[in-house]
Amino acid sequence: MENIMKTMLDQREERIRDWALRHQIALAGRFQRGRDLLRRAAAKREQGIDGILVTVGLCIIALLLCLVMKDSLSDFIETIVGAMTDKAKEILTGPGSTL
């Protein structure tokens, strides 16, 4: 009878050790999967977000320039357009021609 009890206790201890080992392996696997998922999420970059941020930044700068330099900016644009128009007339008419 004592032998049977000892065998039963040994079997129970073995089952407990097996369960603990399986549980430990399962936890380690979950931890590793979670760590890998976190690494992938941290390394992932959203495509196109940089371009959007640059575009928005440039638009804000352009608006600020327009607000701050509205009179000077219109003079600058008129000067550039006038110079380009004169150069275009010169190219189209050729040397010695008059419009």
Q: Which structural class best describes the helix and strand composition?
A: mainly alpha
Strand content: under 5%
Number of strands: 0
Question: What is the typical, i.e. mean, pLDDT?
Answer: 79
Name some characteristics of this structure.
99 residues; mainly alpha
Structure in words:
- The relative contact order is 0.04.
- The model has no long low-confidence stretch (mean pLDDT 79).
- This protein has a domain of 68 residues.
- The chain has 99 residues and is mainly α.
- The chain contains three helices and no strands.
Give the topology, please.
Layout: H1 2-43, H2 49-68, H3 70-93
Quick structural summary:
The protein has 99 residues and is mainly alpha-helical. The chain has a domain at 2-44 and 69-93.
